[in-house]
Design brief:
alpha/beta, 6-stranded mixed β-sheet, Rossmann fold, 318 residues, ATP-binding, AAA+_ATPase, 4-stranded antiparallel β-sheet, ABC transporter, ATP-binding protein
């Protein structure tokens, strides 16, 4: 069962360069959250800070009563046992077959026998659709299969928090759609807390229960999916709808001349909010909400056509 992750006033710098400052949010237990932002805004840095690989300059990351931003190495080691991580490129050991790659954390961090390890490894490989591929080397399989193998390895210690860095990187739209459905199905089955860093707008619009947006060295907004997909706040509306009009430019923030040139140009209307993906087997997820509930509860009128079964978004990745 997933656990809550509470971030308070988090600030990260590299030397004098501020990556982001005063970031506060709560990743609800058992729910899927996505973190978005223009390139170079520190999304992967945020992921590494949440797991304690990077120390923040200020702030706290609370997990089960422990502030991993300020705890001892011993306590951090124990808390990390709650995490599973899917790295951007899968991070497979090239000289090991998929079976040994997936088994690696069990051999390093548990005292399980080889027969017990085999049972766990085969269960996780079946879960991600890789049964029959256990003897293949990473160089012999596609990028999508490497992602799934990396996901199987992230799952072998039964994590309560799953961190996923750019799962769509290097994948075509079809494979991205398959892996998005896999995340929904896994969340329904293992009830872990998911945090996904991505640039893919379709992923952000159809997968998560919550969305966050890092922009201009701060957290622009974080909250339920419907809150951000119905927001008219310029940077949120621009990014989530892949528009050129708005404060984001090629080098992140537009200068005064660029913004002045857009004076009087209205942003396009928000596209319909699509239905969130459902688990393939129909089982309920903890974070799943009735379509339109947040909008109704907060007296927000969603974009026209929202929550229709056929509503879709044809935008490309930013």
């Amino acid at each position: 069962m997933g656990v809550e992750v509470k971030v308070e006033g988090l600030t990260k710098k590299f030397g004098s360069q501020v990556i982001w400052s005063d970031v506060s949010l709560t990743l609800p237990a058992g729910e899927i959250s996505v973190m978005l932002g223009p390139s170079g805004t520190g999304k992967s840095v945020f992921l590494k800070t949440v797991i304690g690989l990077l120390k923040p300059n200020a702030g706290h990351v609370w997990i089960e009563g422990t502030d991993i931003a300020n705890c001892s190495e011993k306590d951090l080691y124990e808390i990390r046992k709650l995490f599973g991580v899917l790295f951007q490129d899968g991070a497979m050991f090239g000289s090991m077959d998929l079976y040994d790659n997936v088994a690696f954390p069990l051999r390093e961090h548990t005292k399980k026998s080889e027969s017990e390890i085999r049972q766990v490894v085969m269960d996780k490989m079946e879960l991600v659709g890789l049964t029959g591929s256990e003897n293949k080397l990473p160089g012999e399989i596609s990028g999508g299969m490497r992602k799934r193998a990396g996901l199987a390895r992230a799952l072998v210690l039964d994590p309560e928090i799953l961190l996923i860095d750019e799962p769509d990187s290097g994948l075509d739209p079809v494979r991205t759609a398959y892996i998005n459905q896999l995340f929904i199905d896994l969340n329904a089955q293992i009830d872990a807390t998911f945090l996904i860093v991505t640039h893919d707008i379709n992923t952000a619009r159809t997968v998560p229960d919550n969305i966050g947006l890092l922009y201009h060295k701060h957290l622009a907004m974080f909250g339920p999916r419907e809150m951000l997909l119905s927001s008219t706040e310029p940077v949120v509306a621009q990014f989530l709808n892949a528009q050129r009009v708005g404060p984001i430019g090629m080098s992140e923030e537009k200068d005064a001349d660029e913004l002045a040139s857009e004076s009087g140009i209205e942003m396009p209307p928000l596209p319909p909010i699509p239905a969130q993906l459902d688990p393939s087997d129909g089982r309920p997820r903890r974070g799943q909400r009735e379509p339109g509930k947040w909008c109704r509860d907060n007296n927000v009128t969603p974009p026209r056509g929202s929550f229709d079964a056929h509503a879709s978004f044809a935008g490309a990745s930013v």
